[in-house]
Give the backbone structure.
Amino acid sequence: MSTPSTTDRRPAGAVGAPAAPGSARRRSHPARTRHRAGERLVAGGFLAPAVLLVALFLLAPFGWTIYRSLFSDTRTSPFSWFANYALFASDPALSRALQNTLMWVAGTVVLPFVLGLAIACMTNAGRFSRLVRLCVVLPYALSGSAVAVVWNFMLTTDGAVNQVLTGLGLDSWAHGWLLTWPGNTVVMILANAWQATGVAVILFLVGLQSIPAETLEAGALDGAGGRQQFRHIVLPQLRPVSIVVIGMSLVNGLKSFDLIWVLTQGGPGRATETLAVSMYNETFLDLRPGAGAAIAVVLTVIVLAASWLYLRRQLDVKGA
């Protein structure tokens, strides 16, 4: 009787058995890694032109502005650290410009938002709604300089507003609207709101027309009145549009220049300057590039901080 050969003694499953799943995953892991690296490389190639353009035309000039703000305004331009930033505490004109900028931010955010929402709601459905919307949106098609020329015709001492007041027997109300602070800043904010309300109306109309009619009908069936529907149904669904409107108004209010320059050039004196106007005056008229660069840096920081805080709050509320 023969005995089995030792060469035939093999562990069960050694030949013809499928490989373990873990070993297959280990063998395919380098391939997946190379595939993902290739995808990231392709994505980086598509993003590279945009990143280079942003770095070239935005980050590099801002970095140079910060660097220039640390030098004085003399011909040799010695390094002066933060002396240009100290002007905000020592120069009354810059303090007034900062105050005017905050007034512009408050006015150019609140007025276009409130007026745009009210006009959009009133003209969303109506017989003459298209004509009314055209009249409101038309000023937005004008440039800031053209708007300033129109309002300069109205607000000068012998302008249309004073002539109308005199014709109505209200002579005591007629005065130089652009000559005294803070009235001159207030009327310029109103002029800006007259132009900026148009885009707010357009955006709010888009938001209103995207609200499903079924939600309003359901609210009416539940006994909700007009005010309750507006507060609990319409406004929450207009949150994305509201974020856009307030964000645009915030940035435009902080960097407003053309309307102020055409109407008053920051005067009388420097009473109506905002930070944007002060930056232009210091850099190009007074030939103080260091001070102008410091104002530009402060204005940029204010714009970025205000936008970030607002968007963070809105996104946190939306996420909640």
